[in-house]
Design goal:
The chain is of the alpha+beta class. Helix content is 22%, strand content 39%. The chain has a 4-stranded antiparallel beta sheet with strand order 3-1-9-10, covered by helices on one side. A 4-stranded antiparallel beta sheet has the order 2-7-6-5. It is globular and about 45 Å long. It binds adenosine-2'-monophosphate. Residues 4, 38, 41, 122, 159 line the site of adenosine-2'-monophosphate.
Length: 193
């Protein structure tokens, strides 16, 4: 099983992202149902490892929060742009959540992830030999943003590689802690025990 842990995105946010997917020839855009924010790529594991991971993910405690998507950018590899991504307005809270998930993965017996974590949503990827001019696309979509939306769970996904690209299946969902509201201010978190 090829697994990863990610935040799903609401339908209307994925529809906004789909609006960014066009205007560059010769690239493969991510299908709207596949948009997500990867928190931890796990890779190929057996049932036992997956069970251990699930147990530890279920013990993660983190308060639910709100965020919006904001901006677009690129990652480069060996001097070539290899993907375009959409960004987030609160990357630090995603880093904090991913740190809890990383700790859970380590408790489950996985090696600590050594690569720096840069939260993003992949929009498209390029093959290194076919690099179109993406300057106009970046300039046109630079001010991309969405309304804020609630994040109240994260998910364990299985990636199945097929002829038409990857298909992602949710194996399990993990609820974030609910806030308790007294008037306008969230001053405590619900105790789920
Ligand atoms: P991405 O988040 O940048 O798109 C499922 O394949 C998800 O895991 C994808 O979203 C992908 O990256 C991420 N992923 C795939 N292979 C990876 C790897 N070797 N290391 C880190 N993340 C990977």
């Amino acid at each position: 099983m090829r697994l990863f842990v990610a935040l799903p995105l609401p339908t209307e946010i994925r529809a906004s992202l789909a609006g960014l997917c066009g205007g560059i020839a010769g690239t493969r855009w991510i299908e709207p149902e596949n948009f997500h924010i990867t928190l931890r790529f796990i890779g190929d594991v057996g049932r036992g490892e997956a069970d251990d991971l699930h147990t530890e993910l279920a013990s993660v405690r983190f308060p639910e929060f709100e965020m919006a998507l904001s901006g677009i950018g690129t990652f480069e590899r060996r001097g070539h742009v290899h993907m375009i991504w959409a960004g987030l307005d609160r990357p630090q809270i995603i880093v904090d959540l991913r740190d809890r998930i990383e700790a859970a993965a380590v408790r489950a017996g996985f090696q600590r992830e050594s690569r720096k974590f840069k939260p993003h949503i992949t929009l498209c990827r390029f093959k290194s030999h076919s690099m179109p001019d993406i300057g106009p696309y970046l300039a046109m979509n630079n001010d991309f943003s969405t309304a804020a939306f609630a994040v109240d769970h994260f998910s364990l996904y299985q990636s199945r590689l097929g002829h038409g690209g990857a298909r992602y299946e949710v194996l399990s969902q993990y609820r974030l802690e609910q806030r308790v509201y007294y008037g306008d201010d969230a001053v405590a978190f619900a105790d789920r025990s």
